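Minutes, methods subgroup
Present: GH (chair), OT, SY

1. OT presented the first of two proteins processed in the latest run. Sequence and structure tokens recorded below as shown on screen.
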Amino acid sequence: MKRIAIRYRTKPESADENQRLIEEVFRELTEKAPSGVKYAALRLDESVFLHLLAVEDSVNDSVASLDAFGAFRNGILNRCLEEPAQAVVQVIGDFEMFSK
């Protein structure tokens, strides 16, 4: 399973809109329920966001192919103060957070 973390800071005036767009992604994920995908998005403070994505090796861009994700990505750089930084992550410990 590949795990990715993406962190960025939005402009303060764009943070609520960014959250709304993320919520739309989760609505569509819930509707379509793609297998092999685990995804969480966190708002760390007023305008810092962290996305955690885990996908099975056999899954190809299930999240990226969503219409709501396309809407979220459209204009992301205009909403951001800091460009999104992405890293492949390794889970060191997990107490029922990512294992379900």
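2. SY then presented the second protein from the same run.
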Amino acid sequence: MDVEHVIGAPHPRLRPFVTRYGGYRMRTEPGVHRGLPSRSLTLVVTLDGTVDLPQGRFATLCGGLHDEAVLITHDGFQHGIQCSLTPLGARAFFGLPAAELSGTSVGLDALDAPAAELRERVQTATTWTDRFAALDLVLGRLLRPVEQQVEVAWAWQRLAEGVPVGEIAAEVGWSRQHLTSRFAAEFGLTPKVVARVMRFERANRMLRGQRRPTLTEVAAACGYTDQAHFNRDWRALCGATPTEWIAAELPFVQGSETEQGAELSP
């Protein structure tokens, strides 16, 4: 097994819309990889091969927010860059709300993005730093002015801070039902589901870290009521229990949440 992960930071002007670049090069046994739910949309540019999903095969793609694992079939070799987009990035780069991509993945060419140019620039670059710089260049050209919906953006931020949905609705002066409707229209998922995904994401990041805590420690730190609750939620979002996921997937993603050993873009 040969696994390489390299983390890069996007150009400062892109950071409200892209949180990070993740370069990967993995040679493993053929199989199926789980793309896990997170608070980010996913933009992928392959350097070799394609990303093979139930919707089709893609050399470049953007996937929206989702609340279950995306199954990715591979032949044992995966090589490319994954960009984590904020929901606002969907409007900034593609001129549409994140809700329009929720639960699905589409090729970048379907979003009127210069998919072929982007892939060619990334393939031509010889270092991860240069590849990340190519992403900065092309994504920077796509940027357009966006107007953020203040209340919905506030709700997203408060969810990330662990504030209950009912309390957030009171803060913005809306009923819980109205907040849910407006939130889902922008992001494609309800506040309750996004809060669940954010909690799952935090647990997943803890397990990927350099020091892996016990499952009991993770459950307690992330606010699950008990180990059974942790297992049920993880299975619903991941398609496997934490123990099953650790055995099948953790060797391929270990350390991918850190910047150790990465060539960081300027």
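Chair's summary of item 2: Residues 150-252 form a domain with the Arc Repressor Mutant, subunit A fold (CATH 1.10.10.60).
Next meeting: continue with the remaining queue.
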